[in-house]
Structure formats: C-alpha cells, structure tokens
Amino acid sequence: MADSGGIKVLSENRQARFQYEILETFETGIELLGTEVKSIRAGKVNLRDGFALVRNGEVWLHNIHISPHQQASAYYNHDPLRTRKLLMHREEIRKLIGKVEQKGLTLVPLKMYLKQGWVKVTLGLGRGKKLHDKRETERRRQDQRDIQRAIKRA
After folding, report:
1. pLDDT band at residue 4, thresholds of 50, 70 and 90?
2. Major place of localization?
3. pLDDT single digits (tens) 99-149
4. How many whole angstroms separate alpha carbon 103 and alpha carbon 88?
5. Vertex 83: Cα angle to 123 and 127 (nearest 5)
C-alpha cells in the first residue's frame, strides 16, 4: 500500500466516511511513545471509535486503540486507549476551534500513515449523517455496482 512520495497507509477509518459528511481534512502529527510507534508500524491500530477534541488550545485524540507491542514487557508497554496529543500549527487550531463550536461538527480520524518516517493522522471535520443520508449513500453505491456489472457483461 505504498504510495508515491514516501507515504504508507497504516490504518484507515472507512466507517467515518459512511457515518459523517466530511467537510474538510487536516494533516496532523501525533505525539507517541516508542512502543506505540512499533505497534503502529506493525499495523496494530484501530481508528474506528476515535474522535478528537480541542482543549486549552491543544488537539487531543481519544479512543484510538493501539495494541501493546508484542516484544516489550508489561512494564515498558503503553496503555492501549490513552489520550494522545495531536501536533498542529496554532493557526490551524484556531480555525478548528471556530468550526468545531458550530452545531453538529466533530473531528474524526480518517487515516493514519507514515510520511517520510513520521506517523501522521488525517483528521476530518465532519457533520453526522442522518439515516436517510446513509441510505442515499448506500443506494448510490449499489447503483454504481450494478452499472459496473452491466458494463462488464456487455
């Protein structure tokens, strides 16, 4: 899954694009411990239930499960669900604060990847989809599949 430019996607939150209408994306760094980096490089990360909050001018990532590293002892290992600090420029954070305070907007992690050796997280500013929006998305996806099948047969 290596893309050009030294980017290797380690984990993707595909469910977020179904549950949220993503309005804007941000690339952020993440503050990690050594064993967390090793686990992430091994692909042992789950972004599904994650979300980010802005507190005291800092962005924090919650509910991201990074499995403990297999080779490390329990003493040196990390807490799998600990809150992790995201690294962003102050201007980006100020911009986020204004947008997150709007009704119904939330920050969700979309993707975790390696970029030139550094672990990065793509955050999406999203609005939760209603049930009928999800059904519409599913209907559109099914129509696309049907069209592709028809083209393939012809």
Report:
1. low
2. cytoplasm
3. 888 777 888 999 999 888 888 999 998 888 888 888 888 898 899 999 999
4. 23
5. 35
125 touches 96 (CB < 8 A): yes
Q: What whole-number distance in Å separates Cα of residue 10 and Cα of residue 42? A: 8
SS3 71: coil
- Polymer length in residues for the chain: 154
* Amino acid code (one letter) for 18: F
Domains, the chain, ordered by start: 2-128 (2.40.280.10)
How far is Cα 127 from Cα 136, in angstroms, rounded to an integer? Answer: 16
Burial letters 5-21, b for 16+ CB under 10 A, else e: eeeeebbbbeebbeebb
CA 67 to chain centre: 16
To which residue do tokens 């012809």 refer? Answer: 154
* CA–CA separation, 128 and 53 (whole Å): 16
User: What token pair was written down for 110?
Assistant: 């979309």
Under DSSP, is residue 63 helix (H, G, I), strand (E, B) or coil?
Answer: coil
Give pTM, 2 decimals.
0.74
State the burial class of residue 145 (Cβ atoms within 10 Å of its Cβ: 0-12, 13-18, 19+). exposed
